[in-house]
Amino acid sequence: MRAYGDSLRGYGHETHVKCNFTCQYCGYDGRAFPNWFQLTVDHIVPQSQGGTDDGENLVTACHACNSITSRMKFPQGAPKETIVTEKKQRVQARQAEYFEFWRTNVAPRYLEKWEGKEVASHND
Ligand SMILES: [Zn+2]
């Protein structure tokens, strides 16, 4: 494969293959082109806290999850599994916060037109 300087086509590709093109924090499916285009490589142990570029420290993350978890701090030597769990929890909490806004301010703008129904019927 030709060498690419960017993460997506270059060094990140191997990580995305390993992770099946799926965000390891929220499950975002990055296989289709527009979604693949949003994939990033996340350092489980942040580089600012001694994390390396070794493959075992790299996972696929969508842009949102990479952003949400980017400033988290972890105890020195914390196991990767613990860090991944904490990042997933942060992402879930942030999604829950944002879901309410989406449900009341975004979904009604297209769900009503789509199905001619009140959005309240989509709350299940
Ligand atoms: Zn994600």
Mean pLDDT: 90
Number of domains: 1
- DSSP strand (E) fraction? 5-15%
Taking all Cα atoms into account, the compactness measure Rg is: 17 Å
Bound molecules: zinc ion
Overall CATH class = Mainly Alpha
CATH topology, what is it called? Answer: DNA Binding (I), subunit A
Shape: flat
Question: What would your notes on this structure say?
Answer:
The relative contact order is 0.12. The protein has a single domain (13-122), classed as DNA Binding (I), subunit A. Strands 1-2 form a two-stranded antiparallel sheet. It has helices at 11-18, 33-36, 63-68, 80-115; strands at 39-43, 58-62. The protein is mainly alpha-helical. Zinc ion binds at residues 23, 25-26, 28, 61-62, 64-65. Zinc ion is lined by residues 23, 25-26, 28, 61-62, 64-65.
